[in-house]
Design brief:
- α1 runs parallel beside α2 (126-143).
- By secondary structure, this protein is α+β, with helices and mostly antiparallel strands.
- It has a 7-stranded antiparallel β-sheet with strand order 6-5-4-3-2-1-7.
- The N and C termini lie far apart (61 Å).
- Helices cover 25% and strands 29% of the residues.
- The protein is globular, with a radius of gyration of 18 Å.
- The longest helix is centred in the N-terminal third of the chain and has 22 residues, at 14-35.
- It has helices at 14-35, 126-143; strands at 40-46, 55-65, 69-76, 87-93, 98-105, 108-109, 152-154.
C-alpha cells in the first residue's frame, strides 16, 4: 500500500478546538451578562443594505442553568418561509471557561469526529467547523451592533 492510497485517520486538534471554545466562551459571557436572569432575549440587527428588509435578528434562549454549566440555544430569524430556522445549541462550561457547540439544527447532535466518507456526508472536523461558525456569528453580532443594549428586544416567552 502506497502513501497515497493509505488514509490517515482524522485526529481532533485539541489545541485549536480549545482556543476556539475559549474565545466563544468570552463572547457568550457578554450575552449572558446582558441576559441577566431572563430566559430569552431577541437581538435585532439594523439593515446593512438599502434593499434589505428592516432588521434581522436572533433569539438567545437559556435552556438550562446549572452551577458549572449553562446550555444556550441561538436561533436565527428565518430568511425564507421554505428554509428551516438555523439554531445552535451551545454548552458553556464555567469552570473551564469554555463553550462548545453540541447540536446544530437541523443536523442534531454534533460529533467531535466522523469517519469519512460516511452515509450522512459529515465532514471529519465538523465540530470544529460548527465552533468556528459560532465565532463568526458572534463576531458579526458584535460588529453590527447586535450586542448593544439598544438593539435588544427583551422578552420572556412563557
Amino acid at each position: 500500500m502506497t502513501a497515497l492510497t493509505r488514509r490517515q485517520r482524522y485526529r481532533v486538534d485539541l489545541r485549536e478546538m480549545m482556543v476556539q471554545c475559549e474565545a466563544n466562551y468570552l463572547h457568550l459571557m457578554r450575552l449572558m451578562r446582558m441576559l441577566e436572569e431572563r430566559d430569552e432575549v431577541h437581538l435585532t440587527l439594523p439593515a446593512l443594505l438599502a434593499d434589505e428588509r428592516p432588521a434581522r435578528g436572533m433569539a438567545v434562549r437559556v435552556l438550562e442553568r446549572c452551577r458549572y454549566t449553562t446550555m444556550l440555544e441561538l436561533e436565527q430569524d428565518t430568511l425564507h418561509s421554505q428554509l428551516p430556522r438555523p439554531a445552535l445549541t451551545v454548552r458553556l462550561y464555567h469552570d473551564a471557561r469554555s463553550a462548545e457547540v453540541t447540536a446544530a439544527r437541523p443536523y442534531q447532535r454534533v460529533a467531535a469526529r466522523h469517519d469519512y466518507p460516511n452515509p450522512s456526508m459529515h465532514q471529519q472536523d465538523e465540530k470544529l467547523q460548527w465552533n468556528r461558525f459560532l465565532a463568526e456569528w458572534l463576531r458579526h453580532l458584535n460588529e453590527h451592533g447586535g450586542t448593544r443594549p439598544d438593539h435588544w428586544e427583551r422578552r420572556v416567552d412563557a
